[in-house]
What we know:
The protein starts with 11 loop residues before the first strand and ends with a helix. Strands 1-2-3-4-5-6-7-8 form an 8-stranded parallel beta barrel, surrounded by 6 helices. The chain has helices at 28-40, 59-71, 87-97, 117-130, 141-144, 150-156, 172-181, 195-200, 210-213, 215-227, 233-243, 251-259, 281-291, and strands at 12-15, 44-47, 78-82, 104-108, 135-139, 162-167, 186-189, 205-208. It has one domain: Aldolase class I (TIM Barrel, Alpha-Beta Barrel), CATH 3.20.20. Helix 4 (117-130) runs parallel beside helix 6 (150-156), helix 6 runs parallel beside helix 7 (172-181) and helix 11 runs antiparallel to helix 13 (281-291). The protein is of the alpha/beta class. The active site is at residues 138, 166. It is found in: Cytoplasm. This is 4-hydroxy-tetrahydrodipicolinate synthase. Belongs to the DapA family. Pfam families: DHDPS.
Amino acid sequence: MINNFDLNDYPLWTALITPFSESGEVDYIALEQLVAEQQAANNGILLLGSTGEGLALSLKEQQAIVEHVCQLTPSVPLMVAVGGMNLKQQVAWVEYCNQLPIHGYLLGSPLYAKPGVIGQTHWFESLLNASKHPCMLYNVPGRSAVEISPTVIKNLADHKNLWALKEASGDIGKFEGFRTASPKLAIFSGDDALMPYFAQAGAKGLVSVAANAWPSQTHEFVKRSLSGQHPNLFTDWSSAIQSLFAVANPIPVKVLMHLQGRINTPQLRPPLTHLELEHTDSITHANNTILSWN
């Protein structure tokens, strides 16, 4: 039976990493521990996003991960990422996940093809129609090479399955454009460091990389950001979060979690490799800073 979570009750969603063994296989024991940590912090869990290296996994691996986490019956909601550029395959993925006890989808922009407003509207509408759960659209032009325009959001604003938008363009002005296009849309920051600013502009929460390394601390960071009563939040967190993006995500966060002893290896799927991060001083310093933060 699927728990009837109100997804708006979860202002922090952790874009969970996928831990691997030295041989490159999914480490399910480590995965279970990571899920338990997020559950203890009361954070929503996003599986198979870019931080989870979802597109570097085979379909069987993707299916096995979602099924395995569902079998753990966590007490927090599960969102599953939908990404790629083959619409038929993505619809099939949504239909497969519809059969599992999940609670939402993150719908990424189609990769590589760079469609315009009409193509994007058709893409998202097709996925929203296939879904049995609330959906968060994902605007991250740095990864998809195409930017969702407010017109696309306006075109989809009345769809019953459109719940939220993950806004990761880093532009507060674009955030305002989305709010105007669909005032009822829940907008989440896709950039950890900008959460205090997005909160002031009306963001409902954060989809986070940092929460992998610091589950409870990031939960408190989001809580304080949304309260608007802690003006020094950006100063406290900025340099620490920047260290997690010194090279391509999720390389630094995986290296840090390995140093923390929370995953057995910092292994990633090619073309990513932990060898890109030649020095770990900055993430070690960030870890010490955040773990002592209050």
